[in-house]
Amino acid sequence: MERKHAIFPARVGIIFLTPALLFVVVFLLYPFVRVFLLSFTNQTLLGTTAPNPEFVGLDNYQRLFDPDRWMRLGEFGSALKITAQFVVGSALIGQAGMGMLIAWAFYRKRGVLREVVFTLVILAWIIPETVVAFTWVAFLDWEFGTLNSVLDTIGVGRPDWLFDRPLQSIILFNSWRGTAFSMLLFSGALETIPPSYVETAEVVGATAWQKFRDIFFPLLRGHILTDLILITLWTFNVFTPFLLTGGGPAKRTEVVSIYTYRTAFMGRHEFGKGSSIAVVMMLINLALALIYLASIRRRRAT
Amino acid sequence: MAEIRVEKAVKTFGKVVAVDNASLTVHEHEFVVLLGPSGCGKTTLLRAIAGLGMVDSGRIMIGSRDVTYLPPKDRNISMVFQSYAIFPHMRVFDNIAFGLKMKRMPKDDIKRRVQAAAELLHIENFLDRYPSQMSGGQRQRVAVARAIAVHAEVLLMDEPLSNLDALLRLEMRAELKRLLAELKATTVYVTHDQIEALSMGDRIAVMRDGKILQFDSPTTVYDMPADRFVAGFIGTPPMNFLEGQVRRQNGAVSVYIGDYALKPIPEMVEALARYDGQPIVAGIRAENMEALSQPAEDALKVTVLVVEPLGSQNLLTIRIGSDIIKVSTHPDFRAVPDQPIWIRFPSDKIRWIDRDSGKTLIPDLGALMS
Question: Which end of chain B has the least Cβ crowding within 10 Å, N or C?
Answer without folding.
Answer: C
